[in-house]
Automatic annotation (TrEMBL):
Residues 1-12 have a biased composition (Basic residues). GO terms for cellular component: plasma membrane. The chain crosses the membrane at residues 48-66, 251-272. Its main location: membrane. Keywords: Cell membrane, Membrane, Transmembrane, Transmembrane helix. This is Pilus assembly protein TadB. It is found in: Cell membrane. InterPro entries: T2SS_GspF_dom.
Amino acid sequence: MDGGKKGGRRVKERISGGPPRSNRQEPDRVNRPLTDYRVYVLSVRQKWSCLLLGGVGLFGIGFVFFHSVTISMLLSGGTFFLPKHLSKYLLRRRREKLGLHFKQALYSLSSSLAAGRSVENGFREAIADLKLLYPDGSNDLIAELAIICTRLEYGQPIEEALQDFSRRAGIEDISNFADVFTTSKRTGGDLVEIVRRTSAIISEKLEISQEIAVMIAQKRFEAKAMLAAPVLFLMFMDLTSPDYMRPLHSGVGLLISAVALLIFVACSWLILKIMDIRI
C-alpha cells in the first residue's frame, strides 16, 4: 500500500515539474526532462547516416573536380560539419509543424469554448480532434496537450502549464497566446473571444507564409538545378571527352580546379541564403 502511494507521488512529481518543497533535497530519479523545441539533438542513427552520406557525397564531388583519391579524402573530412546543419534544418521543420498543429488545436479549442465546455475539457477535445487528423499520434503538440491535461488532473493551474510549454517551444505565437490567456484567466476576460481572435491571427500568418512558399517553390527547384548543373556537366565531360579534361587533373590544372570549386561553394552558399526566406 505504501509502495503504491510512493509510486503515485513520483508520477505526480514528474508531471508537475518537481517534488514538493519539503522533499526537494531528495534526488528525483524518475524525473525526465520535457522536450525543448529550441534545440534538436540528432539520434545516433541520424548522425551516422549524415556522416556516411555526406562523406560519400563530398568524396564524389572532390573526385569529379580533381580525380585524386587523396584530395577527395581530404574534402570528405568536411562531413563532420554537416550534422550541425542537418540539426538546424530538422529543428526548423519541427518548429514549423508545431506552429501549424497549434493553429489547428486553437480552432478546436475555440469551438469547444463556444459550445460551453470548460477550458480543461476544451484541451482534451483538442487532443481528440488532432488524433483524427493524425491517426498515428506521432505529433509533438498531441504529446504537449496530453502533458497539460495530466498536469491539470494533478491540480496544477493551467496558466503554469501553458507558460512552461511556451518557454520550451520558443515560438512567438504560442508565447503570445500563453501570455494573453494567463492575463485573461486571472482578470476574468472573455476566453472564447481571445482564443477565436488568436486562432484567426495565427491562421492569417500561416496562410501568408504558405502563399510565399508556393510562390518561391519554382525558384527553389531552379536553385537546386543550378547547384547540380556544374557537377553533372563535369561528369558528362569526363565520360565523353576524358582527354580534353585530363589537363585539369594534374599540375596547374589542379589549382584551376581548386579555384573553380571554391567559386562553386561560394555561389552555392549565396543561393541558399537568398532562398532562405522566413516569415
